[in-house]
Specification:
Blueprint (H helix, E strand, L loop, with lengths): L1 E4 L11 H9 L2 E4 L2 H10 L7 E4 L5 H12 L4 E4 L12 H9 L4 E4 L4 H9 L6 E6 L5 H6 L7 E6 L4 H12 L4 E6 L7 E6 H7 L8 E5 L10 H13 L4 H12 L3 H12 L5
Parallel strand pairs: 1-4, 1-5, 2-3, 2-4, 6-7
Antiparallel strand pairs: 7-10, 8-9, 8-10
Helix pairs in contact: 3-4, 7-8, 9-10, 9-11, 10-11
Length: 275
Amino acid sequence: MIVLAATPIGNLGDASRRLVEALENAELVVAEDTRTAVQLMRALGVENRPALVALHEHNERQKAAELVERARETDVLVLTDAGMPGISDPGYVLVEAAIAAAVAVTALPGPSAVLTALVLSGLPTDRFVFEGFLPRSGRAAALRALAGEPRTLVFFESPHRIAAALADARDAFGAERPAAVCRELTKKFEEVARGTLAELAAQFSDGARGEIVLVVAGAPAGASADPDAALADVLARVAAGERLKDAAAAVAAATGLGRRELYEAALAARRPPSG
């Protein structure tokens, strides 16, 4: 069986009893970083020393089949450095392979930076979208594509990119869109800064320290998309290599504008002037 186990995201006291018991009895632990896994076991007073296998974004596809076969004979306990495996961390590919091979998968629930930030943000929690880490390149276009999303948006972001990310979010969603920057969750210096995107962009213009989750309110009901901005987004996607048909469909889905209208407007914009 594959056992996905959530680990603390900052405060060691959040480790569940089920996690400790699983570590005490594990024969094989698969970890994003085996050194971090050893440190966690020591901190939790776990004396068991199971076999350790590293599983990360660079080797998950190569390791998945082997680990699934081992899971037929013994429980394979899967950990990431913090939080639940598979959430912006290795785990999904392994689970996919296990299901395809008819190998059982279960989870030991626990801490989640996504949910912790969401409930602390003060923004609607009934419907939300988790977008993971914003892309390193094309971030502005990715945010523009989400401008019409009505559900609360949750992003992970790195400390050295949060200033630029907030500026791009302000430009894409509007200066007055409510948001929250959640930093160092569950740790001693936990901070939740709430305000408009303009206010937060100014507050964190010099960056921030620690692990960061950005939560942004969804588009208000009845909000109208900017056709010019939507067209610019389509053209930017095409320039980046996306097919025009796919770009128009994606922007239409995000903004509520007509796919055909966006497609035809983009065609016209790309057509060289006559005469």
